[in-house]
Predict the 3D structure of the following.
Amino acid sequence: RGGDSTKFGRVFRSDNLQDLTADDVELLVRKLGIRDVIDLRSGVEIESEGPGPLNGLDEVVIHHMSLFPEAGQRTDVEAADAVLPWTLPEERDAIWDQTGMYYTRYLARRPDSVLAALRTMAGSEGAALAHCAAGKDRTGVVCAMALSVVDVERDAIVADYVATGERLDAIIGRLRSTPTYAADLDGSSIDEHLPRPEAMYTFLGYLDRECGGPLGWLGRHGWTDADTDALRTRLLA
């Protein structure tokens, strides 16, 4: 909004990384310079899927920052054995009716993970890659917060979120091919999973009304002016 531009290639947004090929790894690590991976999946998802191709590489640090509260090694406190946000039985209707308000629960459950993700983006010595399962809900929220901090126009933030819809057929197809996600996705249509502009406008509008915007919410949870400066230095041209 102040006339600056974001730098290309500082933060990437992705779906599940489990199926990366050797060529994909070469592209991400050697050519695009990925050095930090922000994994927003639950512990259940990670344990079920196993280590991905980027695990164990000397150049890459994997940061697990679940947006669910977790207990022990395997169980989400609220989700029990569920691995996807839309599988929580008591919230199944709400996530479709008010997806944007559902997104506020990520912030309520794990403000520590949200702040840590943004600080990882700001402090990465190369490029950072944030991902969850589909790269849409959890990842979309974290990236929207980062873009809000650096004062990207609201419509552009929403457009970035909605862009996942261009790849959603392939993303959902891949997720349906693994037992981790297949049972929860079977019987649902692509239309149910599309990222809709209203969802992100609702989410960010709630933060505007109730928290003084994304920066106001972050400030309540320990985000500092130095954090803002670091992220802006990192992401703005």
Q: What stands out?
A: Residues 15 and 134 are 4 Å apart (CA to CA). The chain is about 50% helix and 10% strand.
